[in-house]
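Entry for glycine complex. Fields follow.
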Amino acid sequence: MATVDLILPQHRYVIEITPGSLSWLGERLRAVAAHQRAAIIVDETLTDTYGKTARLSLKEAGYAVTCTTMTSTERHKSLDTVRTLYDHLLLDRLERKSPVIALGGGVVGDVAGFVAATYLRGVPFVQCPTTLLAMVDASVGGKVGVNVPQGKNLIGAFHQPRLVLCDTDTLKSLPGRELRCGLAECVKHGVIRSPRKFEWLEKHLDNVLALDAKALVELVHWNVQIKAKVVMADEKEAGERAHLNFGHTFAHAIEAATSHLSSGDEDEASGAYHHGEAVSLGMVAATRLAVDAGQCPGEVLERLIALLDRIGLPTAATPGRLHEAAALIELMRMDKKVAGGRIRLVLPRELGKVTVTDEATDAQIAAAWKSLAG
Ligand code: GLY
């Protein structure tokens, strides 16, 4: 069993990374949030599989369990979904000490976490992530929230979980595209903090893509270690937690330009980039900007592109799929990280080291956008 302890001034919790761990969820929950009742909020496609395992385990541990499903698209990461979930929890008379358990990917974790942060002014929360992206990023560190038509994640809170249980067996049924998207965040962790782990990915990528059980545990473990260390140093993103946004200011503009949060189109049908794909393009754009500004060796960009290509993530934009650079820059200014109208970027200096700057000019940013089009 691999574990990481996340220790903050007001909170302390364990992130457990083990194949099959969903079957002992109830026992673990007893230790951190003992109560008569518990609510599971589960991705609707997982109800009869992992939902069943989790329910059974909670029942065996003596909980009366209510289970509510939700659709896990970005469009459903909304205040409407939150309201529906409140209605269920109120109807089922969940109380202040009743834990809410998120079972699914990042969307489910973010929405269920927001519900847990606000229902009765906050109830115990547990994350059971079932995607790589949720295991290595979204479920660690307490950021929860929803999208609004104006942008992604603009409404939210910090609500730390009591426990995170990563059952790496769930990754075996993950669609390949989602596994690749999660790997984008793993590449990000290597670039911002660890040349050694970047190398690990270069070396072990084939084992990961083949879903080798040992490689998956090791992958999730080192990524959670990096993420946890950043969060422990800066829980509320006053400083270095911003490093986790490497590639994300570009990515959020790509997602805003290509997705249809308010139109009703589903991501698949609209051909929108998924988050990890947008992050992949964003990391390439940010690194190219740093290299062109003479602040980062060209070798970093070459290794980054080579690794992302091997994973099967996009490193150049399909012609016609992205807007004009000027429109994208305007979308970057909508990002919630903008301060005083200036775009803040995380740029690599070398593998394992990044800096935050708001000094990049519109011309430099436009050149980075244009370079993505080849
Ligand atoms: N995903 C970025 C953060 O947790 O800060």
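NOTE: The chain has a mean pLDDT of 94.
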